Amino acid sequence: EDQVTQSPEALRLQEGESSSLNCSYTVSGLRGLFWYRQDPGKGPEFLFTLYSAGEEKEKERLKATLTKKESFLHITAPKPEDSATYLCAVHSNGGATNKLIFGTGTLLAVQP
Amino acid sequence: NAGVMQNPRHLVRRRGQEARLRCSPMKGHSHVYWYRQLPEEGLKFMVYLQKENIIDESGMPKERFSAEFPKEGPSILRIQQVVRGDSAAYFCASSPSAAAGGDGYTFGSGTRLTVV
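Above: the input entities. Below: the structure tokens describing the complete assembly.
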């Protein structure tokens, strides 16, 4: 069964303190791995798509990387406005069409 | 572009009542997906629809839940005879083509259903 596990569940950082969030996945065949940001009371907001091991994507203070078993979301010198829940999701070859399988997220709090 | 519109934002129903959740996709999007987010759990896929067709309902509970996406108007997720366990945030996403994830797969802000 396809599965996505995110760690840690929660992370508290000081402003400027860099860190990484982990997303481990088990799928029958990876068609894409996605990172989303979710603010309280809002829907997920797309950040990155990664398709193959070794791929990296960057946007401002965020950088996503992918291996055959996991993905990392690196946050460099975070600011308080980066506080949110970060969700990882996969689209796999197995099972049904076009559905995303989500992890439970990492709640990030960046303190000034 | 108003994005994916869901309404109502908050819905309170008594046990045994019906809940109707509406989702208007982005302009030009003909593919709609419904997800449910239970407290302390990740988003779970429920159903994927195109105009007038259910493509995949593998995540939908077999009883009390139904979804439609008519030729005209929003997609509707209907929950009959609600129970406390149905309390959750329900999110809709839309896309312009058959694709999963990515920047064309846009989520709405959700409907928070509370069953009392």
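Note for the figure: The mean pLDDT of chain A is 94.
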